[in-house]
Amino acid sequence: MKIPSLLFALVGVVLAQTAFALEKPDVTYKVFQFPADKIPRIDGDPSDWAMVPESYVVGKDQLHNDSKNPPAAGDKSLSVRVKVGWVKGLNRLYFLYEAEDDYWDFADPGLHNDTFEIMVDGDASGGPLIDKGHKEFWTPEHVGKAAAAPEARISADEAHWAVHGVQAQNYHILTPAVNKDWAMAWGSPTWIKEFPWANSAQSFSFKHGEAGKYILEFWITPFDYAGPEGPSRAVESLLTENKIIGLSWIVIDYDGPSPRGFWCLSPERTSYGHASELCAFRLMPIEPSLLPKLAAQWSWKVVDMDRRLVAFKDLSVGTVTAWKWDFGDGSGSTEQHPLHAFAKPGSYVIILDVTGPDGTARRSKIWDVQLK
Which of 155, 159, 177 is nearest to 111 (CA)? Predict the structure, then answer.
């Protein structure tokens, strides 16, 4: 499908004009950081998530029911627990969804299915994420004069391919998914639900209409730009420590013809289509209990290649009281973050030894520092 270049330009206009905003300003939810050697395996077995503290769990008690046919007050027929994780260096969000229900509805081949719907805005830029939110693009003959802005320039159909799911994404995750894809990626970039941009595994033993416990593990890739043309021009959201992202979810609980539960994390029902109505989630550092007591680590950067001037930065974990650098050229330093000029070109073995109350640790890098 060929998408007019004008549409991409219009996307940029919308993003530039979007005002940053997130719901629940007094609440910041936490995204657990998995160590690189403990990334959860996507197999439907939640044991990999046992290390995640309860403080990271978002339960049903933090959701509100916005259904037109809600259950009676105090109804406990549905329970929900959600954990969200990330791994430094990977632009992925990991999820563990655990739910117990007295009636699982999933026989229909279409969208009528118990659902875990998530919305993610990886750069927290806000703004509409579905086509109906962009009425400034719609012409009067498509939406009526009252709904269209005077400067509307493209049709509703064109708006769908230009903006729906492009700068923030919505996944209708089917719980459980039987004889169908695990999710519907709502919008124009439907490829985002496919591997290697997403992966999922579920575990359950009940049949349609029965009660039981459901477990779903999955990960997704949030995108700052994900167009309908495919991943070739896509821009992944960069996930970094302490970054705030926009994220929310809705649990849709069908028990027959219409939902008896439309459980929203955001105070706004319309958060399914507007990234400014999502909640703030912080990508947390690794929990101290999962870190070694002492580990040496460092990085480097060439400041001036002509002078062969290199800046070294200590990244060690634990309490460090002394640093000893060996620059591989016969010189060294006891500073924490030294700056060193190498006299000759070459490939160097650099060693850092650190000392603290818990002992000593060493980290060497072999020929990383190459100077001409």
Answer: 177
Helix (H, G, I), strand (E, B) or coil at 214: strand
Rg (CA), the chain: 25
- Nearest C-alpha neighbor of 365 from the set 345, 350, 353, 346: 350
Question: In the prediction, which pLDDT does 132 show?
Answer: 73
* Per-residue pLDDT tens digits for 169-225: 999 999 999 999 999 999 999 999 999 999 999 999 999 999 999 999 999 999 999
Q: Provide the whole-model pTM.
A: 0.86
d(CA 321, CA 356): 5
| Structure token digits, residue 348 | 């160097």
Of 91, 305, 286, the residue nearest 198 (C-alpha): 91
The DSSP code sequence of 33-57 is EPPGGGPPPSSS-GGGGTTS-GGG-
Residue ranges and CATH numbers for the domains of the chain are: 5-130+165-286 (2.60.40.1190), 292-371 (2.60.40.10)
List residues bridging with 341 in a β-sheet: 309
Q: How many angstroms separate the CA atoms of 115 and 126, rounded? A: 24
Query: Which residues touch 51 (CB under 8 Å, ≥6 apart)?
Result: 34, 38, 287, 290
* The residue to which tokens 């979810």 are assigned: 249
Q: Within 10 A of 111 (CB to CB), how many other CB atoms are there?
A: 12
